[in-house]
Amino acid sequence: MEPFLGIPVGLALSTAAGLRVFVPLLLTGLAGRFGYLPLTPGMSWISSDMALVAFATATLLEIGGYYIPWVDNLLDTLATPAAIAAGVVATAAVTPELSPLLRWTLAIVAGGGVAGIVQAATALLRVKASAFTAGTGNPVLATGELMGSLTLSILALLLPLLAAALAAGALIIIAWRLLRLRPARPRPRA
Questions:
Q1: Mean pLDDT taken over the chain
Q2: What is the CB neighbour count within 10 angstroms for residue 26?
Q3: Backbone torsion region of residue 134, taken as left when φ is above 0, otherwise alpha when ψ lies between -120 and 50, otherwise beta
Q4: Which residue, 42, 56, 70, 109, shows the most beta carbons closer than 10 Å to its own?
Q5: Comparing C-alpha atoms, which of 90, 72, 56 is closest to residue 126?
Q6: How many other CB atoms sit within 10 Å of the CB of residue 76?
Q7: CB–CB of 183/29 below 8 Å?
């Protein structure tokens, strides 16, 4: 991998982890296993047999859980800290060209931060969808999140700069939407 190309890969994978925690970890492990993606030496465990089995099992359980009414909302509570951890791990695993200090700073601040922001936004969206549709719209949302996580993870591995641009665009949209939710300040009377 070109020097510093791991940064956009890590940020795109972290964004994908905010949508589905285990999909990007599974795909990162598989890419590392097949030699497509160089992993940071201390993070090569991601491509081990045990890790791949664990990630595959967790991926299937996570995907299935989001299609069960009200379980999906409970999963969002558990997925928020897990997404942050997955964002940190994904970013740290794919940035072998960085010094350890820079790698872990980037992984914690950017990787964990991006995953946490995206996960929090999807959790808020799910709460609104549950309220407006009594949970019947949540499977559509779950499918969209899964497709987004798969697409962004695959793009991160194949076209990292495009994936990072899409992730940045998604973050801008999320920030813009969250800022619009803030209550307006009352105007002073003249």
A1: 86
A2: 22
A3: left
A4: 56
A5: 72
A6: 19
A7: no
Q: Which residues contact 157 (CB under 8 A, 6 or more apart)?
A: 9, 27, 28, 31, 36, 37
Rounded Cα gap, residues 159 and 152, in angstroms: 10
Tokens representing 149 are 């996580």
Report the distance separating Cα 26 and Cα 5, nearest Å. Answer: 20
The percent of residues in the chain predicted with pLDDT above 70, rounded, is: 91
**Where exactly are the structural domains of the chain?**
6-170
Q: Are the C-beta atoms of 51 and 117 separated by less than 8 Å?
A: no
The span from the CA of 47 to the CA of 29, in Å, is 4
Q: What are phi and psi of 40, to 5 degrees?
A: -60, 135
Three-state DSSP at 38 gives: coil
Structure tokens at 179: 């800022």
* Cα–Cα dist 84/82, whole Å: 5
State which amino acid sits at residue 155. Answer: L
User: Each residue of 176-188: pLDDT tens digit?
Assistant: 766 666 665 666 6
Find where tokens 């030496």 sit: 41
